[in-house]
Amino acid sequence: MGDVSSQVLASFEAREKYRYFRILVIGRANAGKTTLLKRVCNTTEEPCIYDEKSNSLLEPTSERGIHDIDRPFAFASNPQFIFHDSPGFETGDKSQLKKVQSFIEKRAKSTEVDDQLHAIWLLSLSRVIALPNFWRRFCFIPNTARFLLDLEKNFFNEQRAGNIPVIAIFTKFDHLISQVYDANLEEDENREVAERLLKDSLRAPLFEYKFPPRVDVCLEDMHDDDANHQEQVKELIEKTAESLHDLALKILFVSLQQNNLELCVKYVVQS
């Protein structure tokens, strides 16, 4: 018991050296990245970009957007969360994958605590190829290979530098429900069809690769102010925290959750 207490105390002390929690966000077009990050940070403000010296905040412009992986951005109300933005791999441009891999390697090798990368959120839309009603109801894996982009397969098949956890996030599940909607089925039945399709054709293939995500999360209606988005954010935070092996980082991560105090208490009590 004494060894465990000493370990926890050391983790709380180590947490003091961390000032920021840094996340690389990789997402396809229209995956809802900015909306998700606003929900995570519990804000309606627009993100701001750090300059090259990381000591002042610059407003994004059309010439200087947030899609530069090397330029961090944050929300002024929650500056301890540092994000890096990378477009998804739908263009098929191999140089984009190499740039992401190089960024991860560079951050993994950093000896400066504030420069290290702590987690990767990879966003994909919850959508599939349009299917006739018959196949929607009775065939749930028409061709799983087509649901993953070639560069996404490469990303999960090639070893990445460091031990940075990847969390796969399927966004806009509500769109998938609409896509498979059958007027002959009840609402719950349509949802069940969509959930099974998501599980069999989108989630399952991911975890068959050599270096799969550590966990995955499914989100819906994040754009809707009246939806239960904070419950979904809580799940994302919990799964991200569970994927972190360093207790000090885990304590840092949950302590930044200004809108999830219950989660902070949970991890402190567990510790």
Can you tell me about this structure?
This protein has 271 residues and is an alpha/beta fold. The chain has one domain: Rossmann fold, CATH 3.40.50.300. It contains 10 helices and 8 strands. α1 crosses α9.
Descriptive keywords:
P-loop_NTPase, 10 helices, GTP-bd, alpha/beta, Rossmann fold, eight-stranded mixed β-sheet, single chain, G domain-containing protein, 8 strands, 271 residues
Summarize the structure.
The protein is α/β, with parallel strands linked by helices and 271 residues long. It is 42% helix and 15% strand. Strand 2 and strand 3 form a beta hairpin.
| Separation, N- and C-terminal Cα atoms | 12 Å
CATH architecture label: 3-Layer(aba) Sandwich
| Unreliable runs | 61-65, 134-145
Q: Name the CATH superfamily classification.
A: P-loop containing nucleotide triphosphate hydrolases
Mind summarizing the main beta sheet? 8 strands, mixed
At the fold tier of CATH, the topology name is Rossmann fold
Overall tally of domains: 1
**Rg (CA only):** 20 Å
Q: What is the class in the CATH system?
A: Alpha Beta
Apparent shape: globular
Return the average pLDDT rounded to an integer.
Answer: 79
Strand content: 15-25%
Given the structure, what is the number of helices? 10
Helix content: 40-55%
The secondary structure category is: alpha/beta
Spatially, the strands of the biggest sheet line up as 3-2-4-5-1-6-7-8
- Could you state the order of secondary-structure elements as H and E? HEHEEEEHEHHEHHEHHH
Write the layout of secondary structure elements.
Elements: H1 2-15, E1 21-27, H2 33-40, E2 48-50, E3 57-58, E4 73-75, E5 78-87, H3 94-109, E6 119-125, H4 133-138, H5 150-157, E7 166-171, H6 173-179, H7 187-206, E8 215-218, H8 229-243, H9 247-255, H10 261-270
Parallel strand pairs: 1-5, 1-6, 6-7, 7-8
Antiparallel strand pairs: 2-3, 2-4, 4-5
Helix pairs in contact: 1-9, 8-9, 9-10
